[in-house]
Amino acid sequence: MNNPSARMRIFSGIQPSGVLTLANYLCALKRFVELQDSGQECVYCIVDLHAITVWQDPGALKDAIRHAAAAFLAAGIDPGKSILFNQSQVSAHAELAWVFNCVARMGWMGRMTQFKEKAGRDRENASVGLFTYPSLMAADILVYHATHVPVGDDQKQHLELTRDIAIKFNHDYRRDFFPVIEPLIEGVTTRIMSLRDGTKKMSKSDPSDYSRINLSDSADQVAKKIRRARSDAFALPGQASELASRPEARNLLGIYALLGNTAMDQVLDRFGGKMFSQLKGELTELAVAVLGPISAEMNRLVGDPAELDRILGDGAERAASLADPILQQTYDIVGMLPSRRRN
Ligand code: TYM
């Protein structure tokens, strides 16, 4: 269905469930800016409704939504080129998610690793929203008839489920209505790991702040976290084939490559045979040079919440004008009467 010569419509989202991390920047925001600057039509969303699948302090959530908006802008998202908004302002997302809850199967949701990880052992006590989370995610994307979705590797399974929902909907209602999306999971590294454990992903919700670099961290905090990052006892590898058995080295080298827009081979050439301490020193310098201006701009932007709210409100209006007609067509396809209130 996707004609490669046709223009792409990009959609992606980030949860405001804490301060955004280096992983969100390297594997998501940075890619979002590249796609925007390559002239694609981009819709970017702060997925606040997803955040409340796990309880959030209401005051802290409001701050986190504005903080996330500031991070998008500071990273280079231009609201004149891309649509930037928060999910709860465009009700079509939640409405289409309901339709998708009726298309998706219980078994599909139960297989999602993110659900299993977040619900943990006490599944009976997880929110129903956490279980149906992927329906809302599919709705986020498909309510725009988006074609391409840039994400980190951890979201791959959710995007496969989005494809399954589109295919089943099209099959059940005998229409070629929803596009079968293409995940864009690209880059030298597509999964950034915890600084404390190279086998666990870096996450906003990890209890240890030393496991991640936050976009709001000061230069001193960045330096301290990199210095304390776990390492192993050997010299750094010089060959890509050695990386699989060296998760901490692979992670720090991958972060260095992404931050500096350098190929992994070049990074391996530079650091192969050297000690971790040298990599950590150079990585700190690079991270501070790249992240310093972003965190300074974020701090400036969060000082003007009214302006952030204006940008999100304006984005929400533009998003709704794309989403509402697609939702109405969906309602028509599944057999609802036309809404007199909306038309
Ligand atoms: P979230 O908020 O956890 O993460 C936002 C983006 O950052 C990427 N990411 C990572 N990439 C590599 N390594 C990591 N350690 C890492 N941690 C986070 C994620 O892959 C993502 O691209 N369910 C999504 C939000 C969402 C969404 C959507 C995304 C809701 N609806 C529709 C795309 C399209 C999530 O929780 O991302």
Write the layout of secondary structure elements.
Layout (H helix, E strand, L loop, with lengths): L8 E6 L7 H16 L3 E6 L1 H4 L6 H18 L7 E4 L5 H10 L4 H5 L2 H7 L8 H15 L5 E3 L5 H17 L9 E3 L34 H10 L18 H14 L3 H8 L4 H27 L2 H30 L9
Parallel strand pairs: 1-2, 2-3, 4-5
Give structural notes.
By secondary structure, this protein is mainly alpha-helical. It has 13 helices and 5 strands. It has helices at 22-37, 48-51, 58-75, 92-101, 106-110, 113-119, 128-142, 156-172, 219-228, 247-260, 264-271, 276-302, 305-334, and strands at residues 9-14, 41-46, 83-86, 148-150, 182-184. The strands form 2 sheets. A 3-stranded parallel β-sheet has the order 1-2-3. Helix 1 links the parallel strand 1 (9-14) and strand 2. Helix 10 (247-260) crosses helix 11 (264-271). It is globular, with a radius of gyration of 21 Å. The protein starts with 8 loop residues before the first strand and ends in a 9-residue tail after the last helix. The mean pLDDT is 96. The structure holds tryptophanyl-5'AMP (TYM). Tryptophanyl-5'AMP (TYM) is lined by residues 11-15, 23-24, 27-28, 47, 50, 137, 140-141, 149, 151-155, 158, 191-192, 201-202.
